[in-house]
Amino acid sequence: MAALRGVPFDSLPIAALALREGRIVAVNAEYERFMFAPAADVVGRTIEDLIGQFVREPDVALISAANESYGEGKRPEGQLWIRVTDAVGHARSIRVEWQASVVPGEDVVYLLDAEAESSARNAAEGLGRAAGELWRCRDEQEVLERAAGVLRARGLTVATLLLRDGDPLLAYGPMLSTSSSGDPGAANPFRAVRPPREILWQLNPDFDYGRAAFFQDVRPLVAAAYPGEAGEHLRERVPQARTVQAPLFVGGAPYGALVITGDDLTPAHAGAMEMFAELVARAIENVRLRTELVQRERLAALGEAAAVMAHEVRNPIAAILNARVLLQKPSLPAGVGDDLLRVIGEEAQRLDRLVSDLLDLGRPLTPRIRAVDLQELAERSVAVLGDRGQAGEVEIVVSPAAAHVEARLDPDLTQLALWNVVRNAAQASPPGSRVTVAALARGDRAALVVDDQGPGFPDKDVERLLEPFHTTRPTGTGIGLAVVRRVVEACHGKIEIGASPGGGGRFVMVFPAGA
After folding, report:
1. What beta strand segments (E) does 73-203 contain?
2. H helices within 226-266, ranges in order?
3. Residue 284 CA neighbour count, 13 Å, CB half
4. Closest Cα to residue 247, out of 287, 197, 289, 204?
5. Is-contact 455 428, C-beta < 8 A?
6. Is the dihedral of CA 104, 106, 107, 111 positive or negative?
């Protein structure tokens, strides 16, 4: 007895009846489970007999006509849905299909459970939604672990088999079962033996096409992948029988496979698992692309940093060394020594600021956000700058607030950001001019606004102003505003850059309003 594609009739994963000359000559185990009717009660009867016994009255004429047409060599068109009542009185909807068997003179009638097909559709929709979360993963391992967790949450066992360049054996990724602890790296008896990589293609001839394969019984697969005593031991440990192998292709190259087992899997679920594996692969590609972009950005930033540091460090050192040489001369004009010591002090302070800015840029930010009075924060920050003598030759004032303004932010980090913005504004403004700081309410947002009387921000540079090491000043490092961006984003705020109403530049830090 055989069925389509050479699959043994008894192993068909869906209910089936084998016919010869209009009579039933065999039923498979799935039919017995599906209709709760033992083979002895069915074999030898005609389809018409079964129609009279199981098909509900409204559909009797429909199924009888379809059966008669098939007997005359006319295949029924479309999908035939009927309602039946099984041997124990349970009503259900099924789809009936007639097919020719590979055995001459035999036909096969398939009964597909509508509820099972609906389950497969629901699985596809659920897995598709869950796969959206995979795009937020930081690396490939997290993608695979989350994917395994998604399948496990649906009552399935999953093993991730991975292909590695130059390795003739398969590597193991996350492996989870419904009885496991949930730790993707937990001990698993299968990990003790690694099967050859060719097993993926041997078990699934359509592997290169990315097609998922359904297997009625997983135990022969285990025997093929794990021969010998190890395989015998592992076959006893297999928790479930039905299996889907879903290939993973990343960047067009074979990456591995998801091997999913579960008692309720059907061939209809293979499509859902195939789709899920495709989404997992796309998430891995996304992680790789993001990693490559980050690495390129880091290398570019490192190159810019090296150039900036070479320039910024060399100039103060040269000034200090020149002053040292002059101070070593036996006779100096009156007052020259004091000027040289002042140069040494200024250049040393410049180096100190450079080191501080670099440390601020690289410091990990863990903001402690709370409601803060913005007016108080602005006044305190400006007072500290004055005490440190960092205002230069400009006047820095804080405009009185029209009303109480609160924002949710980290006060220490925001003070650091405001110092950088105000220092930048003071350096851009001519001597004797004014830099104004104001705290403003904006509905559900609050803002710190810094206006200067400098030349303003060139349109072509606005988008790059916040990039590390980009500067428009001959003596600038391009670090300060990069620090500002990190702080503001860490506090869930945003930055606005434009022109001040009175001329000059305007820099705005916007934060969520305080509760």
Report:
1. 80-85, 91-100, 106-113, 157-162, 171-176
2. 228-237
3. 22
4. 204
5. yes
6. negative
Residue 437's pLDDT is 93
Query: Under CATH, which number does the domain 119-291 receive?
Result: 3.30.450.40
CA distances from 431 to 247, 339, 394, 419, 447 (A): 69, 22, 5, 19, 27
Give the separation between CA 201 and CA 207, rounded to whole angstroms: 6
Nearest-angstrom CA–CA distance, 65 and 21 = 17
Domain coordinates of the chain in residue numbers?
4-114, 119-291, 300-361, 365-512
In CATH, which of 1.20.120, 3.40.50, 1.10.3290, 1.10.287 is domain 300-361? 1.10.287
Confidence of residue 460 (pLDDT cuts 50, 70, 90): low
Predicted TM-score (pTM) of the model is 0.46
Structural class in CATH, domain 4-114: alpha beta
The number of helix segments (H) and strand segments (E) in the chain equals 13, 17
Name the more confident of 164 and 180.
Answer: 164
Residue 372 pLDDT > 60: yes
Question: What is the domain class of 365-512 according to CATH?
Answer: alpha beta
* Predicted pLDDT at 184: 45
Q: DSSP for 397-408?
A: EEPPPSS--EEE
Q: Is 447 exposed, middle or buried (0-12, 13-18, 19+ CB in 10 A)?
A: buried
Domains 4-114 and 300-361 share a fold: no
User: Quick one: which of 490, 468, 146, 125 has its CA closest to 287?
Assistant: 146
Enter the tokens of residue 496.
């606005």
Question: Measured between alpha carbons, how far is residue 107 from residues 14, 17, 100, 103 in Å?
Answer: 15, 8, 5, 8
Could you say which DSSP state residue 242 is in?
Answer: -
Yes or no: say if 27 and 17 are a contact pair by the CB < 8 Å rule: yes
Coarse DSSP helix, strand, coil percentages of the chain, rounded to the nearest 5 percent: 45, 25, 30
